[in-house]
Amino acid sequence: MSSCTVIIVAAGSGQRFGGPVPKQYQELGGMPILRRSVLAFLGHPHITAVQVVISPQHRDHYDRAVAGLDLPPPIHGGASRQDSVRLGLEALAKSGKPDLVMIHDAARPLIDAATITAVRKALDHATGAIAAKPLVDTLKRGNAGAIEATIDRSHLWQAHTPQAFHFDAIHAAHQAAAGAQLTDDAAVAEKAGLTVTLVASNADNMKITNPDDLGRAARLLGQNFGDIRTGLGFDVHRLVPGDIIHLCGLTLPHHHTLAGHSDADVALHAVVDAILGAMSAGDIGQYFPPSDPQWKGKDSAHFVRHVVRMVNERGGMIAHVDVTMMCESPKIGPHRDAMQKRLAELLEVTPDRVSVKATTTERLGFTGREEGIAAQAVATVRFPG
Q: Considering its fold, how many domains does the chain have in total?
C-alpha cells in the first residue's frame, strides 16, 4: 500500500478568533483542538505518519497539546498558510518523502474517518482530491444592500480539508506557486494544471474561525458521540516492605511498597480495566500479562496510554473517570490534586473530567490491617452513535 503522510497546518496566529491562546490550542470537549485533529489521523489505517507544522513562537502550546502522542518534531511554518504547507512539503522531501500526502487544517477537528478514507481512495485514480461540500443555499449577489442577481449554485462547492495529492506533483506545484498567496492547496494544484477530484465531505467538518464556531463545534461533538458507555475496574495489590509506593501515577515515600509484576499502581490498573470494560475489550491481563517479562517493573502510565489509544482508534473519547482508593495509608488528601492532574494528563482530558478520592475500611479486612490496597474505578466513554 502506498505510504501517506498527513501535514496538519497549525502555524496560524488565529487573530480573527482572538484571545491569548491561538485557536488551534483552545480546548474543545476537554481536549485541545489541535490534538483532536491529530488523533483523527494518527490511528487511521490509511495514514502512515502525521506531521504538524507550527509557529516557532507556539512551541510550548504545541508540546502541551500533543503530549504523549507519537509524533515527529514539528516543522516551523511561514507567514501564510501556503508558505507553511510548502515548508512542510520541503521538509518531508528531505526526510524521506511519502508516495501520497494529505494536507489538513488544524482548525477542522471534527473530520471523520469515513471522509479521510474517501479522500485517500480517490488518489487511486486521481492526482489530487479534496473533501468538499456542495452548496445547498440559494446564493445572491448584492449591491448597495439590495439583490443584484441570483447565482447558479449547481456547480459550486465549499472546499474543506483534507486535501490529498501524489507527493511529487503537489510538491512541485507548491514550489512553482511560492509567493502567490493562494488560499488552499487545490488552488495551487489548479495553477499547476493538475486535475483535482471533489469528494463529498461530512457536513460537520467545519472550520473553527471565531468563538461562536467553538460553541457550535462543541454541540456537534456531543451529538456525534451519542453512544455512552460505562466500565467498572477493580484491583488489589499486596503491601510488602519497601520505601516508595506508586499510586495514581505518582511515586510517594512510604514504609511499604505494592507488590506486582509492573510498578503495581493499583489505581491506574483499576482505571485501565474500567476503560477496557467500557469498550467490552477484556481486561488488563489480556494486554499486559504478568507472565511476560517485558512488563516487569513497567510504569503503569504505559498501560493507561495504551487503552486511551484504543479509545481514540475507535473514534471515541473519554468523558469522565472516577477512581477510589481503599487504604489506611498513605493519606491521599495531600496528594489528591497532583494525582488528579497526573491522571488527567494520562487520559488526555482536563482535570475536571477526573475524580480521585480515598476511603478507609475502618480498620476492617486486609486494607484495614494494611496488608494491601484496593482501588475501584468507573470510566465513562463516548463513541459515535
A: 2
